[in-house]
Design brief:
Layout: H1 2-7, E1 13-16, H2 18-27, E2 33-38, E3 57-61, H3 68-78, E4 84-89, H4 94-109, E5 113-118, H5 125-135, E6 139-142, H6 146-150, H7 152-162
Parallel strand pairs: 1-2, 2-3, 4-5, 4-6
Length: 178
Amino acid sequence: MVGELVRRPVDLIATFGPPPTQAAQAATTTIPIVMIGIGDAVRAGLVASLARPGGNITGNTILSPDLGGKRLQILREAIASVSRVAYLANPDNVSTMATLAEMKLAAASAGMTLIGVEVGSGTDFDDAFTAMLRERPDALLVSNDPLHQLHINWIIAFLVQHRCRGCSMQRRTWRRAA
């Protein structure tokens, strides 16, 4: 799709998340790219630095990896008994994987267990849900990855279906919300 935009040409390309921004970066060095929803633009290789991005990419960053420990702290303050936390990460999104790594370190130092659940495509959700049922987390944190946000209703429907089962969650059939 980015190749088609470059051939037209367009005046600007707006992207959400690392994978689309990386695709745009690979397709053009001349058309301005405005990125949003990026966890760490430097670590993702999209810009040289936040102060001086260079190239044709600009936008914002949410510094998601640096906030992983804070998210766990707030979760523990909200739910004092939480000890096992699942985090939905996209293996194709460098920002969510960096957040997963940072959160694992923070969880260990807080006496918590962080369970990485990788979902890189819409077809991965069933396996991810099955893995979560096996792991029996107390809570789930969902990344801001565009794929995960696109399927947020399905994720919520799964959680609602299993919330009352607590630690005795068992594999059941779930359907994608329409």
